[in-house]
Design brief:
Helix content: 25-40%
Strand order of the largest sheet: 1-2-3-4-5-6-7
Oligomer: single chain
Shape: elongated
Structural class: alpha+beta
Number of helices: 7
Distance between the termini: 32 Å
Protein name: CHMP3 protein
Number of strands: 14
Length: about 280
């Protein structure tokens, strides 16, 4: 849901991470509450006095981003970024071990306001890093989290516009547009993405509350694909598809003689991205 609550990573600096706005799949505006008793936070604050200010300790704005295939193919990265201080931002990167497929590498990135060598000598030996790592792995791989991650795979539906190779698709000009009345249809530009086209189509059908996305986990989809929340798709599908079918029939009437393929809207296709991040 747009407003909810995330279970925070126990090794993070935050006692609470509350979702404020769903920006896009894998991109959330959040409210962060610092855990003032967290050992890592105490260590940071001891080296950087502004971290004890009210702006930091009170609930404040932040961003949570999950990105697949970054910084390398096969990796997944989660970033929590605080607007109160750069030194509260943290990231976790999970990737397969390059030499042993049975192992997984987990890297944590945190900003420290001191010289790295000095910080290691002065603080890391006293921070029970191994214990924090054990807690994090328990959180990452416990039954509830595994179930939640599996459920997330079905949270969105990826749609693809196919066989639309003779210019942009058609939008109805009026309610009740019929496929054999050319005046009731309007062709969109060939450079308009399927996500933008689909959002416009839904608005024309008074279904604009269903939001269409063009990115997933921080990566841009190819122009012929779009994403909706599955519950939104199940709501709009019975209304959209009959009108879309009429648009496809009208589209075929504009094609060269002998062309028999109608544009198709394919559901549950694998996401394809415009580019692959290789670091």
């Amino acid at each position: 849901e747009i407003v909810g609550r995330l279970v925070p990573d126990p090794a993070h600096l935050f006692a609470g991470i509350k979702v404020i706005e769903f920006v896009a799949p894998g991109d959330l505006a959040v409210q962060l509450t610092v855990d003032a008793g967290n050992l890592w936070f105490k260590t940071l604050a001891a080296n950087y006095h502004p971290l004890s200010s009210a702006d930091v300790l009170l609930p404040h704005a932040g961003r949570l981003v999950v990105r697949s295939g970054y910084p390398r193919s096969g990796c997944s990265t989660m970033l929590v970024s605080s607007q109160a201080s750069y030194f509260l931002s943290t990231a976790v990167c999970v990737e397969p071990h390059p030499a042993d497929a049975s192992k997984t590498l987990v890297s944590r990135f945190l900003a420290a306001p001191v010289d790295v060598a000095h910080f290691r000598v002065k603080h890391l030996a006293r921070m029970s890093v191994a214990r924090a790592g054990t807690e994090w792995f328990r959180w990452l791989f416990d039954g509830d989290m595994c179930t939640a991650r599996e459920a997330m795979k079905g949270f969105y539906v990826v749609l693809s516009l196919q066989d639309c190779s003779f210019g942009g698709p058609l939008l109805p000009r009026v309610a009740g547009a019929e496929p054999f009345d050319a005046e009731t249809w309007e062709r969109v530009g060939a450079d308009v993405s399927f996500a933008a086209y689909l959002q416009s189509f839904l608005h024309l059908l008074d279904l604009g509350a269903a939001k269409v996305f063009s990115s997933l986990d921080g990566q841009q989809l190819v122009p012929s694909q779009a994403i909706l929340r599955r519950k939104d798709w199940e709501h709009v599908r019975p209304v959209l598809l009959p009108v879309f079918q009429k648009a496809c029939i009208a589209y075929r009437r504009l094609l060269p003689n002998g062309t028999v393929e109608l544009p198709k809207l394919a559901e549950n296709v694998p996401a394809t991205f415009s580019h692959v991040c290789d670091g």
